[in-house]
């Protein structure tokens, strides 16, 4: 046997020995070197650049030349045997281990990419180029067949990286499950199960669609209807099995799907699930580009079936890097961006725009040596106010990093949070230079520092910061955080200002099912709750009372000497002495004192309740979010009420009678402080308890010992005596209390009840009048939420009034709605159907009558009278409380007092209502708010009772959603999503959900603006049941009373179009003193001319930023610093187009709304203004190469059109022009890199469009694409001008629809106005274009065209 290291030899071999073979290889290499040198000398070895539709100039510096920070870098010497190629594309970073890799993608507009040896450095500035930038460079390759650059030189930035949109985005995802077929290179391999992959995205409790929705607070969602999972088989090759070439995998998979007729370009993101057996070759579980649209995963539980890995790779596409800990990448287990399976960490949420800080602290907002207290909600309760961001600029030159504090709790998207982070204050830090600006160049190294338990006290001398962690409230998912910054040491922070260590805590149990608002959990042992009350009783006397609620200003330290505190003010209050006594509540009516046992709680007020004396009670949760976890054994919480009552403190003593004047002090111990105010009180002496967080409507916690409460009721209950009496019979008001044991929990509601502390003392019942005293024996409380419980009392079924056979209008100008606008379900109009109680006067316009003790308005009948609706009786609302009839010269309305008045129906909606989960509906409310709408006020509810919220619709001034326990939220619209409705002004508010429930649109019309405002939100199916129709109050929470008037309520079983809503606004314009909508003569296009793809009309869908004036005809307002025009919505409103959302253009730059007597338009400034869509065109667009289409543009040019000005583009981005449509004033073409130009129309082929004149410009490509026609119509000529050009097939993809600028070249800005844009998926005939010109002739002052 020959030695293992010897070569076999033959006697006639010329070079038999191994050293001779090495010499032979050297000679061959030398020969190749000489040949390559000769070739390079002949042709420069420079490869040609792929063709581009627009002639490209040689590489040039960026538009804004960067400052030369150092001399240009010397370019490396390249061996002559290496081939060079000039390329340009988009720079991408991939997060491969152990070091990342750099690529240049979309090479010269194609889908190919080149791997780079390192991050490119700009040859002009000497700075590393950020991922996402458009770059040109010279790549040196070892051979002509490879796409790997062994070296690069002459890198230049063509366009700097732009921020990636991460909010209000809908992902259209194509998932390709790949397997390998046998080839000459390797054997076949299977892949993942397609059904299981689809279920991972769409089904089950951990599905990725819900995971992204929860973590992003609805700001990044998957389009369920357009999420496609397909299998594909590609040939096996060593490129795949040995090299793990993911770009080759993607290229082969896309080729197979294109051959199968699947259009890859119609999806925003591509996911590739690799074949089996590639873990070793690839060396990773998942891979994503920064930025990018593609991700790759292994086909197992560590790859595509791991929700943390899937989120991490997809978020790489949006610019997020890995999480760090102790200098080690991936080591942050608290986030999916590390090794976790939970939502991103606080700095990552902020970077994505998915959550905002409760406060940002720096040297300006954070005074020295002053403790500041904050009640911090958990991150899952976002998006607002769920982290503390610290920018320690007081460190001077040592300021290097920002610090983030956040409470993490195992709920919602964080339900798989690792226990070591649960219920603790998580601390991260991040590079400040990157964190303080939006665009980051490289990894900011977001690093986990610590997870602090409640009760921790830590000094971070590197930040000169002292941090104390207070009580964690597992019921409301909040924690108390106290901070002080110092110069040299802790002695600067006054010791007696520190809070005491919090009480012990236990992490929350697994979450309850989602609910509109997080109910507070329960604490042992069960005890009765405080009932809500419009007129709260005064507080009780000592022992020590809780501090006043926290506020923006830090509290001052306390001094040991007892003395009554000063009232809270913008400055810290004077110190209080131990033991402090409870504050006096503000109240218009004093309650009668009660004999001991304990006295009633403090009254509700707009401020959050103060905490209790020991043990400390947790703060109330923010809303609206999923329910907080509960900790056994449960005790029922307080039922929510219109305003949060203050907590009680033991032992009981008679309260001070509240009054409008400051109350007189009580007997010692020290007198109570003044009532709470928007400024924070100073902390109280030990034992202190944490303050409750600000919350719109939480009730207060209770204090020991337990005793029976009075039931929640709008009227005062009669006194009880021991033993407890049986409950009162059901009535329109909440029932009286029942005898023990405790009753089942209340269902969740938009406003969570506040937590209880064991054991609570009995409260006074809510009542406008002083409550009667209670007796000691406990009676069962109202049940806690969030699970729908069995009701504690018989269902709420008031006796209906008898319907009148006919109704007589009371408003002189009343008219019945036209047939096309008559609603199928509810038609309530206060001009015709209001029944007023005999003997009570009607409130006339301008009068302010004293509200009667009983309702003037008794009922509101449907304007259809006795006519049947779908086989059921028309709706009848019965009223209770102080409701008055209001009339003026033009309209009638019901006036709601904001305290007691509401209307309810004891019957279901007519059977014309469709309660299926995907059913269309429209609800219209016309009224006016007297009280600012930032305070929650109920417009209407459906299927929301005093006992449950099963399949409900909840619509109040700050929050709107349907909730189905089986399907979740249908949508969730919060006051932060759009401007608040105005006060003291008639306003039309409308919700429109189209069939399929994939979206919902919200509309508003009032005299502030002469157009229909609208907002569109994503949605999902959710059933809404037809029972318990209520207006003016939330009967579940016994609060959120409307303070205002209601005149009209309409409910349809279909989705009204935008034009129908404009028509509705016009119909009511005279009655409510509105201007007629913009473009009074606006009409909907006739059916044969309505476009299938895009219908943008500036008369109906332009959204203008609040507070910016509309530019009138002839005026030349100074352009604002931000856009006056913010968006342009499709005139079809929420109606579905081909199963997807209608187009919405978002605007940037100085874009103004223009109006004259007949039309509306958007004015483009020629310098900064353009509109773009972040979504694809609807799926009704056909992007096949031979598909027909028509595009119509109506506008006017201010600047001569010989200068290029962009009308519109499709699939032309700031990085590529793959399968694009390019339409500007001097040039028009579609370009497909695979098929070439579809046509090429230049300004020399036809006359230029006129200036300062409304003109219609249209392109028509017939099926087959063998030709294209161009049409023009304006007042210069009374006929339709046309030109015809030859053409050939060319695909046009539906992404990146843009008007007014060329975002690839950052130029060709339109100087003019645009009024109408229409896109059809068919070729309009000449006669249809003549008809279209005639339709718009009056509006644009054209002569009617001749045929």
UniProtKB/TrEMBL annotation:
Residues 501-809 are annotated as: Disordered. Residues 799-809 have a biased composition (Low complexity). Signal peptide: none annotated. Residues 501-798 have a biased composition (Pro residues). Residues 172-457 form the Peptidase M11 gametolysin domain. It comes from the Eukaryota. InterPro entries: ConA-like_dom_sf, Peptidase_M11. This is Peptidase M11 gametolysin domain-containing protein. It comes from Volvox africanus.
